[in-house]
């Protein structure tokens, strides 16, 4: 379906390459499991069932995991109004609108396509942002849906979960199949663990490289759609500062979903964590928005204080 969000060939190329490489990686991984476990049907059926469930029910799974609830227009009229306006401007179907009762200010989009998508914001975000800033955040999230990268990152991220579940199933099937662990069993376990670690490491790098680029692409497309990159920059600055003050315990709970969030739940994390972040740095995002502001003749986007 055609929409008015600015297309991004770089994003499309990266999504195709990431899916291709991850596909090869996991075909090889499943092949190794089949050879080691000598159970073709069980391994393939389990992998296919889990991947299919994630693809078809990704929106429900994400909402449940992040405590989001679908809300109607009479419950959040302003939020629905902003989404309505942006979807009309972008000429795209309106996704379902959800709210998560969390103090951490954030937002995310999920779903397999434009007709089966959800945009969710937290109560902490609604409480802290001005209307134009909220519009900037929602335009960013809607661009993920329009670019289809939300579906790609959902499936790509879940492949690691599938690998982990298959390894766990293999462990228990071998455990119950044999009363004792002989040398052959230990060798199988060691090989599976080694291969799974390699698969996870490669997936980790590929997904984060794609995730950082897609966030910049969403910032760019959202800012161009609204014509107010400074509002998005203001929201980024405000949300980043607020997240830094959220208790570390709450951030740890949210970090598993960083690839989906508008801003990662990192707080004052060590440098090495930011290097492997799912998002580009705040400075990179503000620099890009500042350039777009200059191109559009808008006042320069605000910089991070301090």
UniProtKB/TrEMBL annotation:
Q: What class of enzyme is it?
A: hydrolase
EC number(s) on record?
Answer: 3.4.24.-
Locate the active site: 141
Q: How does it sit in the membrane?
A: Multi-pass membrane protein
Q: What is a single Pfam family found in this protein's UniProt entry?
A: Peptidase_M48
Q: Which biological processes are named by the entry's GO terms?
A: proteolysis
Stored PANTHER family: PROTEASE HTPX (PTHR43221), PROTEASE HTPX HOMOLOG (PTHR43221:SF2)
Q: What is this protein called?
A: Protease HtpX homolog
